[in-house]
Amino acid sequence: MGSMLIDGQRVEFSNEKNLLEIVRKCGIDLPTFCYHSELSVYGACRMCMVEDKWGGTIASCSTPPKDGMEIYTNTAKLKKHRKMILELILANHDRDCTVCEKNGRCKLQELAIRLGVKKVRFEEEKKDLHVDDSSVSIVRNPNKCIMCGDCVRMCEEVQGVGVLGFAYRGAKIQVTTAFNKAMNKVDCVNCGQCRTVCPTGALVIKKDIDRAWNVLHDKNKRVIAQIAPAVRVAMGEEFGLKAGEVTMGKIVAALRKMGFDQVYDTALAADLTVIEESEEFKKHLDSESKLPLFTSCCPAWVKFAEQKYPELTENISSCRSPQQMFGAVIKEQFRSLKETDGKDNVVIAIMPCTAKKYEAVRPENFNNGEYDVDMVITTQELAMMIKEQGIVFNELEDEALDMPFGLASGAGIIFGVTGGVAEAVLRHCYMDKSSSSLKNLAFTGIRGMKGVKEAEVELNGKTIRIAVVHGLKNADNLIKSVINGEKSYNFIEVMACPGGCIGGAGQPIPHSLNDRIQRTKGIYNADSASAIKRSEENPTIVALYNGILKRNHKLLHRSNK
Ligand code: HC1
Ligand code: SF4
């Protein structure tokens, strides 16, 4: 608690951890490249310098506030200093802005405009480093890297993966992988979180837009969309709407205008996952073996576990993710249609996630001579396609999904947030199907943004211990405490991205934690609005179990379990 003078105005502060947060709280948007409130303070870019009353300059991000301080944020000296930094960065930056993927969204470009940098006085040799597009999820272009280190800290501190780091010294310094290996040859889990903090075009989503247009323009293809739960609460942000606004009806309308033949909901397959995973969980509980059971719908988490904890393979649910269940079921269902009209069935998944691109091409997802899901387009890619097509998104009339695979329960929809899978499974397992039991479940402690959440519930006379974790570093720490016996659980839900899929790296980049909170609210609103709350009450699911799943149940599992 205390107060200070900022540009001559008295400002109170309480728990802010540094000067930068206080300055921003009082309405001055100090520029930074390397500061993210959820990462450690690096203090490298020096853009957030402020001046004290004696004319000394200090980095506001790494200076704790003190009562009675007097600082200035925009003196002539500071302005000159910031411009100089920008010019130095721009001097050896690849400045092909017009064709840069980040054009219009680049922090470097934005600050150069904002601070009035009109020319670069220092001409240095441009970098000509190899652009790594070996990953199916992200492209790394070191020529556009400004060494802020944000991706390095994200990968290490939030995801616990640590495949990116600084190499070489002086003018040759680079952010790269160990031994400069290709991204598809290191333990990158494809989560894409590095790209959510990259201020420039150095890390971007690997696009499948051209491939998507090709099939949409081909009259011999039947193009089928499945839309993931979290897409509906974030797409609007690309068109100036508020985070959390549910725009499913407009997304459906846009997809039809673009030429999609069928538009369905991935949350329907999440309902299948709920039933399969619940049955599997009950078996593990009854036999008291392979506990805790871990969820399997997040592909970045599955890859992380396979690499780091191979001994846990049997504890990870054998269920395919909803994306893959959906693809497998639809391909099976539409096979006869292909035989009748000769059209190839092409399944395009619209996902909030970059790791889903990797999941779709895993070998176990190649069946009957084709992939179950042919292509994955992120929320951001779909927004680009909508804009390219000239569709005025905000003016679209809402349209309904196609039936019967457009029908999902609220339980399927809440998969899009951390805690959602666990809650959906409990809704199914609970014998008490009253609405008060639904409410009680919501308050067990598995909702919310805490990195690790724990709950104890009574299930058929047994006390079940549940953990819900998001962020792979949190998952890593939790697993260590399970392995060393400090903690014990029966069921653990893991999502790699902060907040779950609503914070996926294929979504519009959230401006703050509040955007993720609003998206979460949007998901719970969509759940409240849905007529069906539990997966087993979804009539399409019932029909599937009485139809193709009776004949071919293995469509739902990663191996033939
Ligand atoms: Fe997810 Fe899932 S919820 S993994 O977060 O289980 O991506 O949205 O589609 O597959 O349904 C992502 C979201 C998504 C799957 C479902
Ligand atoms: Fe690290 Fe995820 Fe980026 Fe891969 S995609 S480098 S795991 S943050």
UniProtKB/TrEMBL annotation:
Q: Which residues form the 2Fe-2S ferredoxin-type domain?
A: 1-77
> Where does it reside?
Membrane
4Fe-4S ferredoxin-type domain location: 136-166, 179-208
The record, for CDD domains, names: fer2 (cd00207)
SUPFAM superfamilies this protein is in?
A: 2Fe-2S ferredoxin-like (SSF54292), 4Fe-4S ferredoxins (SSF54862), Fe-only hydrogenase (SSF53920)
Which ranges carry the 4Fe-4S His(Cys)3-ligated-type domain? 77-116
Which PROSITE patterns does the protein's record reference? Answer: 2FE2S_FER_2, 4FE4S_FER_1, 4FE4S_FER_2, 4FE4S_HC3, COMPLEX1_75K_1
Q: Which InterPro entries match?
A: 2Fe-2S_ferredoxin-like_sf, 2Fe-2S_ferredoxin-type, 4Fe4S_Fe-S-bd, 4Fe4S_Fe_S_CS, Cytosolic_Fe-S_CAF, Fe_hydrogenase, Fe_hydrogenase_lsu_C, Fe_hydrogenase_ssu
Q: Which cofactor does it need?
A: [4Fe-4S] cluster; [2Fe-2S] cluster
Gene Ontology molecular function, alphabetical: 2 iron, 2 sulfur cluster binding; 4 iron, 4 sulfur cluster binding; ferredoxin hydrogenase activity; iron ion binding; NADH dehydrogenase (ubiquinone) activity
Q: Name one Pfam family in it.
A: Fer4_7
The Swiss-Prot or TrEMBL record describes its family as follows:
Belongs to the complex I 75 kDa subunit family.
**What protein name does the entry list?**
Hydrogenase, Fe-only
